[in-house]
């Protein structure tokens, strides 16, 4: 079966959705069009590559939705005449490719092929990173600082000295941090910190 046969298209513009679906139908690519991410969440696909029109916060919203479902699909973002900063932000948010609109059907097919090839190696690692980041975002600033200290191998006393707080206060923040991360041991918290790219 062709790995790029299924394209999950998310775009609020009906005409653009129709144009993309029509352009790709002749290339053997099945397009599942969705107007919104919440509409997609109500009919979660089994496989495919996501092509999403890039609007403020939408890639982050999509990545969070995928993290809740426990499944990651490669994301290709697109927009009209994107500037380099916007492309960089989309990639930081979770997209693995970015293309400008209007798009030639051959260009979409080529980007899909590349996305699927990268997804083979990125898939599980990307999902773990997304889920770890979502957990870390629940922490307060101080709890994140304590997590950084723990991940660096510092004792409660040394973390306290670094943050100008008592070791007992560090213990309280540490306990709260472990609870919010859903970590039973310090090693779990360190793994989550590494997966969230807080430490390398």
Summarize the structure.
This protein has 200 residues and is an alpha/beta fold. It contains 9 helices and 5 strands; from the N terminus they run E-H-E-H-E-H-E-H-E-H-H-H-H-H. A 5-stranded parallel sheet has the order 2-1-3-4-5, with helices on both faces.
Can you walk through the features of this model?
By secondary structure, the chain is α/β, with parallel strands linked by helices. It has two domains: about 5-125, Response regulator (Rossmann fold), CATH 3.40.50.2300; about 140-195, Winged helix-like DNA-binding domain superfamily/Winged helix DNA-binding domain (Arc Repressor Mutant, subunit A, Orthogonal Bundle), CATH 1.10.10. Helix content is about 60%, strand content about 15%. It has nine helices and five strands, in the order βαβαβαβαβααααα. The protein has helices at about 15-25, 35-40, 60-70, 85-95, 105-135, 140-150, 155-165, 165-180, 185-195, and strands at about 5-10, 30-35, 50-55, 75-80, 95-100. Strands 2-1-3-4-5 form a five-stranded parallel β-sheet, sandwiched between helices. Strand 1 (about 5-10), helix 1 and strand 2 form a beta-alpha-beta unit. The protein is elongated.
CATH architecture type of the largest domain = 3-Layer(aba) Sandwich
**Helix coverage percent:** 55-70%
Strand portion, in percent?
5-15%
The number of helical segments is 9
For this structure, the CATH topology of the largest domain is: Rossmann fold
User: In CATH, what is the class of the largest domain?
Assistant: Alpha Beta
The shape is elongated
In terms of structural class, how would the helical and strand content be classed?
Answer: alpha/beta
Low-confidence stretches: none
> Largest beta sheet: what is the strand line-up?
2-1-3-4-5
Domain Response regulatory: 6-116
Pfam family, one: GerE
Keywords: DNA-binding, Transcription, Transcription regulation
InterPro entries: CheY-like_superfamily (IPR011006), Sig_transdc_resp-reg_C-effctor (IPR016032), Sig_transdc_resp-reg_receiver (IPR001789), Tscrpt_reg_LuxR_C (IPR000792), WH-like_DNA-bd_sf (IPR036388)
């Amino acid at each position: 079966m062709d790995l790029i046969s299924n394209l999950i298209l998310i775009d609020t513009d009906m005409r653009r959705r129709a144009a993309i679906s029509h352009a790709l139908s002749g290339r053997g690519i099945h397009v599942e069009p969705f107007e919104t991410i919440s509409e997609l969440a109500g009919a979660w696909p089994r496989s495919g590559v996501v092509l999403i029109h890039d609007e403020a916060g939408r890639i982050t919203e999509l990545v969070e939705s995928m993290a809740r479902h426990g499944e990651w699909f490669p994301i290709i973002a697109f927009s009209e005449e994107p500037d380099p900063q916007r492309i960089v932000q989309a990639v930081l948010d979770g997209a693995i490719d970015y293309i400008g609109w209007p798009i030639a059907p051959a260009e979409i097919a080529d980007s899909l092929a590349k996305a699927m090839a990268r997804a083979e190696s990125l898939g599980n690692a990307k999902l773990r990173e997304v889920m770890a980041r979502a957990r870390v975002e629940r922490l307060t600033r101080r709890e994140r600082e304590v997590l950084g200290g723990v991940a660096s191998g510092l004792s409660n006393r040394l973390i306290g000295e670094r943050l100008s707080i008592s070791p007992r206060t560090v213990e309280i923040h540490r306990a709260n941090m472990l609870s919010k991360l859903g970590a039973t041991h310090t090693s779990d918290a360190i793994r989550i910190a590494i997966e969230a790219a807080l430490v390398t």
